UniProtKB/TrEMBL annotation:
Residues 60-104 form the NADH-Ubiquinone oxidoreductase (complex I) chain 5 N-terminal domain. Residues 668-746 form the MrpA C-terminal/MbhE domain. This is Na(+)/H(+) antiporter subunit A. It comes from Actinomadura rubteroloni. The keyword Cell division does not apply. It is found in: Cell membrane; Membrane.
Length: 950
């Protein structure tokens, strides 16, 4: 199963390239991927194969693993997602225009959503299920907001994201509570041995919030109609066949264990029945046929969730049948609406007229799909609805009445859809239409026909669907069949159809009554809540965010100091210490004194440049302490980081006055002095106490042995890329985000990128100094006298800024320093170094080129984009993580590969080396980003301030 998901992810990554090469026709080969998933699921689902399980270590230290389980329910969901999804993806090949902008990313998001849904229904771990759950939320947001130029699309995407994320966060808390109460996070084990107690009731309530929000059940149902701003294929896939079914799936998955608890059955059944009735009534007043189907979808989801939560085997069987039928008829109807919109340019039923005569095949497919939705005999929808009536016929008559009322609305808005979309209306001219192509017609026709074929073959579906609900309590003997005779369910079906016909005939009075009785619109309530939330957030932000960086630092420092003080007073760790150890030798004491003096001098300095240099001295002092403490790897990295930091400070200082403000209130100075003293005292005390009050043996004692297992001789390197690789992976992501943050701030008004190539010739005035014009003109007037261009960008500098010695040295040492950085990278397994240190050294080599040749030299020294470097680094780190899962059985698991070379001899190469290469590239990318944004871009702004202002 993990292999299948990985293969699906490869298709996700290939989608943009395929669209770039083949255009919209790329959707045809992409459709083969979900079709293959459906083909994988059909045989075991039909044959009743035993469940298949896979388990892969994820984070062993936290007892997290990638648990997958395929059973009858999972196979059916994969079959629906893959089969219906394949037809919808193929439909996209003719739905979109040739040259549609953004189609590559649309294909990527569509395939990624399908992979996330398949992962969700195969997950057998609560945390893994939540990860896939949130991935569907993210990709649905991107799909709904596909046309970002439209405000309606952006608003609908944001609304869906806010509501479903709210439910998802609540569900995460519930899943954690449920896992802790159960003693396991495996879903199959929880269902087999369900826990009890108050914590479980709270957990189920939170989980239900996520399930109900995803399936658009009251009070979360407003996001789905708004999401109709998405392209029609998105509506057909997400809101008919896949995403909205996630809540129903979760209800059926956990139902056998918890359906009879007070936090599950009664609440969900009540909300589901109410949703079915109210959404069906709301659909009767819609004039947009797509919105009509959207409210119909909400109504049908209420029906499904009611059946799934009822707690009986027959009700669950009916729920699964309706889920299957709904995926077929509702996807077909959404695709038909897409064809209508595509062919006529409108979805307003008041403007559509005469399409039945112009597009008879489309009208026929719509009629068949509506018949299944309304529950007319010989369709799969009828089989499921009849089973639902049977489930409640002898238990809850009031609920049965609500279901019949909801079904009546279904028949009514189904007839209204057919009349509005295809009938010829008095006073409305026939709508101009161009005939849809076979490629557009085929998917909805196949889906509609499948609803009838499976309805007639309901006996074949009985056994597979029975296996899905076998865990529900009871000994119900009901079986699916296309015909059960003239019993109560059939008469209820006939009654709901007749009542629906009456409501269709009285559709205008019903719509007027609905408008009069409507006290508020849910969308208006949502907007009011969001507006009030935004206003409150702005008020709070305005009161605490004053734009003062010293103020922010003061709050952070004092909060940390207060927290540490309270913890220390409560724990009294000083009572357990066995003496003070200030230093190991006099050299450490001397360095500490010099470091403190540098820090005091930095505070006393009145020049920003001097402050930066003196503050850097404290960092070099810390690096010296590492060296004296026999930690050369830490010392090397600290020296390099401090050097890079000084360069960043210098680049920033070019845009600031060298002196500090002269006047500062005495009260502010006093507050800062007191805060600094308190922070310093608390940090010093914490270090002294923590170092001598340990109650357990440090875990570092096991590092040498763990490093030996990886084949590394350098313990620090083994810790970074093997033992604590998860920490390193997170830190590299933070570095990449920092680079993106710097770029987004500096390039707020224009697209980021390198400066253009310098013009041919010499003697430009980059970095010119006022008052040296005569020297520059002399250099231009006598080009034969000028020094040679040792660097490509050197000729662009003003003459007074050029240094022949610096340019020669920069050219000679550049490649040597790069080789040194590569040595640090590859030698880290057995000596000091690593990807972080090597990346800084490589970045410093580029810094030298920039300082010697100016901003144009930066493009020559590193002729690649920062995004490419950072992206390649992230691919290396994450790729190594998943490779460890595939070959080593755990994420980030390192393997030692022995390679015998003829001349070099035997090489022992750890797979973690690729991880270190990723760290190297990410650090290099960060340095390049800093040079481009704070260096070259600052130069551009200084040389052309009018361009920046524009």
């Amino acid at each position: 199963m993990l292999f299948l998901l990985a293969a699906h992810c490869l298709a996700v990554l290939a989608a943009p390239a395929l669209v770039r090469w083949w255009g919209r026709d790329a959707f045809l080969p992409l459709a083969l991927v979900p079709a293959a998933m459906a083909a994988w699921a059909i045989p075991p689902w039909i044959s009743g194969a035993a469940p298949r399980e896979e388990r892969h270590a994820w984070i062993p230290g936290l007892h997290l693993s990638l648990d997958f389980r395929a059973d009858a329910l999972s196979w059916m969901m994969v079959m629906i997602i893959g089969g219906v999804g394949a037809l919808i993806v193929a439909y996209c090949a003719r739905y979109f225009d040739r040259g549609e902008p953004g189609l590559g990313f649309f294909a990527l998001h569509m395939m990624a959503f399908a992979a996330s849904m398949i992962g969700l229904v195969l997950a057998d771990n609560l945390i893994l299920l939540y990860v896939f759950w949130e991935l569907t939320t993210v990709f649905s947001y991107l799909l709904i907001g596909f046309d970002a130029r439209k405000r309606a699309a952006r608003g609908a995407a944001t609304q869906a994201l806010v509501i479903t994320t709210f439910g998802g966060l609540a569900m995460l808390a519930g899943l954690v509570l449920l896992g802790n109460a159960s003693g396991t996070y495996r879903i199959s084990e929880i269902v087999a041995r369900p826990p009890g107690g108050g914590a479980v009731i709270a957990a189920l309530s939170l989980v239900l919030a996520g399930a109900l929000s995803k399936s658009a059940i009251i009070p979360f149902g407003l996001w789905l109609p708004g999401a109709m701003a998405a392209p029609t294929p998105v509506s057909a896939f997400l809101h008919a066949a896949a995403m909205v079914k996630a809540g129903v799936y979760l209800g059926v998955r956990l139902g056998p264990a918890f359906a009879h608890t007070i936090a599950w059955g009664p609440i969900v059944v009540s909300l589901g029945a109410a949703t079915m009735v109210f959404a069906g009534w709301r659909a009767m007043r819609e004039t947009d046929v797509k919105l009509l189907l959207a409210y119909g979808t909400v109504s049908q989801l209420g029906f499904m969730i009611t059946l799934a939560a009822a707690g009986t085997r027959t009700a669950a069987l009916a729920g699964m049948t309706v889920l299957f039928a709904h995926a077929l008829f509702k996807a077909a109807l959404f695709l038909i609406v897409g064809i209508i919109d595509h062919s006529t340019g409108t979805r307003d039923l008041r403007e559509l007229s005469g399409l039945r005569h112009r597009t008879p095949v489309l009208a026929g497919a719509a009629t068949v799909a509506v018949a299944s939705m309304a529950g007319i005999p010989a369709t799969l929808g009828f089989v499921g609805k009849e089973a639902g009536y049977e489930a409640f016929a002898r238990e809850d008559r009031f609920l049965l009445v609500l279901l019949v009322a909801g079904s009546s609305f279904t028949a009514a808005y189904g007839l209204r859809f057919l009349w509005g979309a295809f009938a010829r209306k008095d006073g409305v001219p026939d709508t101009p239409v161009h005939r849809p192509t076979p490629g557009l017609l085929a998917p909805p026709v196949l889906l509609a026909v499948a609803g009838v074929a499976l309805g007639l073959a309901a006996n074949v579906l009985d056994a597979p669907l029975e296996r899905e609900v076998a865990g529900y309590p009871g000994r119900d003997t009901y079986h699916l069949a296309p015909w059960h005779g003239f019993g109560l369910p059939l008469w209820l079906t006939a009654g709901s159809l007749m009542l629906g016909g009456v409501m269709f005939l009285a559709r205008e009075p019903l719509a007027r009554t609905h408008r009069r009785l409507t006290v508020f619109e849910p969308a208006a309530v949502y907007r009011a809540i969001m507006d009030r939330t935004n206003d409150t957030a702005m008020q709070i932000t305005g009161s605490v965010q004053r734009g003062s960086l010293p103020g922010y630092l003061l709050v952070i420092a004092m909060t940390a100091t207060a927290a540490a003080t309270v913890a220390a007073v409560a724990a009294r760790p000083w009572t357990r210490h066995d003496g003070w150890l200030l230093w190991d030798g006099p050299a450490q004491g001397a360095v500490a004194v010099l470091t403190a003096a540098s820090g005091i001098a930095a505070v006393r300095a009145r020049n920003r440049g001097a402050t930066v240099v003196l503050a850097g001295g404290t960092g070099y002092g810390a690096a010296t302490q590492f060296f004296l403490h026999a930690a050369p790897d830490l010392a090397l990295t600290q020296f390099l980081v401090e050097t890079a930091s000084l360069i960043v400070f210098v680049l920033v200082l070019r845009s600031l006055p060298m002196g500090f403000p002269v006047t500062r209130p005495a009260s502010r100075r006093a507050v800062h002095i007191v805060a600094a003293v308190l922070v310093g005292v608390s940090v010093t005390a914490a270090v002294l106490i923590a170092g001598r009050a340990r109650t357990a043996a440090p875990i570092s004692g096991g590092y040498p042995g763990a490093a030996a297992e990886t084949g590394a001789k350098n313990v620090v390197s083994a810790v970074i890329v093997d033992i604590r690789a998860w920490d390193t992976l997170g830190e590299t992501c933070v570095i990449a985000l920092a680079a993106l943050g710097i770029t987004s701030i500096v390039f707020a008004r224009r697209r980021a990128g390198y400066r253009p190539r310098p013009p041919q010739g010499r003697g430009t005035d980059v970095w010119a100094v006022e008052g040296f014009e005569s020297l520059a003109e002399l250099d231009r007037a006598a080009p034969g006298r000028g020094e040679p261009d040792w660097l490509e960008g050197g000729g662009t500098l003003a003459a007074e800024r050029r240094s022949l010695i610096f340019e020669v040295v920069a050219r000679f040492i550049f490649h040597t320093v790069l080789l040194m950085s590569l040595y640090l990278l590859f030698a880290a397994h057995s000596s000091p170094g690593g990807g972080f240190a090597g990346g800084i050294v490589a970045g410093l080599a580029v810094v030298v080129r920039y300082l010697a040749g100016g901003p144009y030299e930066l493009a020559a020294a590193a002729p690649v984009s920062v995004g490419t470097v950072l992206g390649t680094g992230l691919i290396c780190t994450t790729g190594t993580a998943f490779a460890g899962l595939a070959w080593g059985g755990a994420v980030l698991k390192s393997t030692l590969v022995d390679v015998a070379l003829p001349v070099l001899g035997d090489l022992h190469v750890p797979t973690s080396l690729l991880f270190d290469v990723g760290v190297y590239l990410i650090v290099v990318g960060l340095v390049l980003d800093v040079l481009i944004t704070l260096g070259a871009e600052a130069d551009r702004e200084a040389e052309a301030p009018e361009a920046v202002a524009s």
